[in-house]
Amino acid sequence: xxxxxxxxxxxxxxxxxxxxxxxxxxxxxxxxxxxxxxxxxxxxxxxxxxxxxxxxxxxxxxxxxxxxxxxxxxxxxxxxxxxxxxxxxxxxxxxxxxxxxxxxxxxxxxxxxxxxxxxxxxxxxxxxxxxxxxxxxxxxxxxxxxxxxxxxxxxxxxxxxxxxxxxxxxxxxxxxxxxxxxxxxxxxxxxxxxxxxxxxxxxxxxxxxxxxxxxxxxxxxxxxxxxxxxxxxxxxxxxxxxxxxxxxxxxxxxxxxxxxxxxxxxxxxxxxxxxxxxxxxxxxxxxxxxxxxxxxxxxxxxxxxxxxxxxxxxxxxxxxxxxxxxxxxxxxxxxxxxxxxxxxxxxxxxxxxxxxxxxxxxxxxxxxxxxxxxxxxxxxxxxx
Length: 384
Ligand SMILES: Cc1cc2nc3c(=O)[nH]c(=O)nc-3n(C[C@H](O)[C@H](O)[C@H](O)COP(=O)(O)O)c2cc1C
Known about the structure:
By secondary structure, this protein is of the alpha/beta class. The chain has helices at 2-11, 15-31, 35-43, 76-81, 124-132, 156-167, 192-207, 225-237, 259-265, 276-289, 305-313, 323-328, 331-364, 374-381; strands at 52-54, 57-59, 63-65, 86-92, 105-108, 113-116, 141-145, 173-177, 215-219, 242-245, 269-272, 296-299, 318-321. It has an eight-stranded parallel β-barrel with strand order 3-4-7-8-9-10-12-13, surrounded by six helices. Strands 5-6-11 form a three-stranded antiparallel sheet. Strands 1-2 form a two-stranded antiparallel ribbon.
């Protein structure tokens, strides 16, 4: 239904309007009595085999919605009914902000990609609290936090702490988004001093709380290997709980879309299929460098259920999708979950077969008898 009806309708609209319409339709589900229940029955895949225990939380399945879709936490329960195992809201900033001038999101259908330079428009902390304090019926919510564009970089830590402190009781985990504009070069934000300047006050605040809220760092796919290793080292050396890898990329390499077309679009972060390889590499690198001991949420270019499996194989504990949702529609979450179930099923069938083969082989082996030689065994087992 999405591919035949909804997608042509949404793709006929400018992408920002399509996004608003999609959110409105989702929220409408919540206004209809029994709407969420019905959507859940039609879309969500419930199976204990999908559940994952990550940073002390039990996720109903490993497939989350990436930041930037439900920026203000307007449709968290409805997204849960669609089958998402968790929803990351934001990027939130302390004060409301408009973001960059329009147009600021672009589809690249030939590449199954999207370029975004929204500049993190959102309604600010107060509005987010109003939304997130409502009952969520168990939907796990991460808050992606950033600084206002008008806050000077050397005062950024104050913005993060304000959001963290005020949202602490409403979020299940936090994702720290460094940098404030997806149209700009954020390289300088990955120095150890800058990152710790933001993270340390959050660790200090958390130490005084009764409840524990995991803190993850959302990283860019454009990090050099050295910067990626620095992130992994921070993971090992500080109370940082994990990473969300990755954000969109500034790279335009290897696209089918013409250079003229991408030049016309201008700067911005690209999400979707062309990002997949880099996101996988970065997840694998951080996973290996940190000894596989820290949770990673893998995101970037996951456009098919097989991509999701590859991301989990690369070391991710959970995954998130964004552009995949735009191109595949809401049924994508269920498709991924079913694929994971059938893969797990195949895996356990394979393991069971291996185990029974091992048992049969062990049963066929004669018990150890020092008085007999292998030759004796062979001749005795042969038919006369
Ligand atoms: C339209 C759009 C808006 C986004 N907004 C945000 C945002 O506000 N904060 C953030 O951390 N990431 C944002 N992202 C990045 C996504 O969360 C995700 O990391 C990235 O797009 C890679 O995943 P994908 O290939 O599945 O799209 C946005 C992405 C898109 C396409």
